[in-house]
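Changelog-adjacent note: as of this version, every example in the card shows the full chain rather than a window. The one below runs 168 residues end to end.
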Amino acid sequence: MKKDAAYWIKHLQLTKHPEGGHFKEYYRSSLSITRSALPVSFNGNRSASTAIYFLLEKNEFSALHRIASDELWHFYAGDGLVIYELMTDGSLQLHRLGNDVDSGEVFQVVVRAGSWFGASLDNGGEYALIGGTVASGFDFEDFELAERSNLTERYPQHREIIKLLTKG
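Full-length structure tokens:
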């Protein structure tokens, strides 16, 4: 049986994510880092690390957002995807995540803390199942979803990407 997006959503018990797609947290470290030991961009204590499953289906995208930690994306199954990373200096970096190494895809990508980033399936793919590992651990208190007008004003040279990866 060929595994499709519906199989993974059911099997892994994924639910809708605010940025788009489906997810489930499967690991949260019991080790805690105190606020005083973290950079000023954090608003409280954090787990040392967290990890999720994340799935994008055809016609979905991961909306541009940023978090206070580095995030490592891991490819598991399905089709390749493109991660768009707006660096803090205003440059755009494209990462191709997948298993087609001959066409430039890689199995893991690091997105730096404070960068705006989002993703979409590459070349009309059906779905991509990935993992996201965040250290220090993810907390929705550190999650900021991009507003199209604000980001376009700040990065007008990336207007088309911003329009593609924001909601309204």
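Structural remarks: The domain at 5-33+45-164 is CATH 2.60.120.10 (Jelly Rolls).
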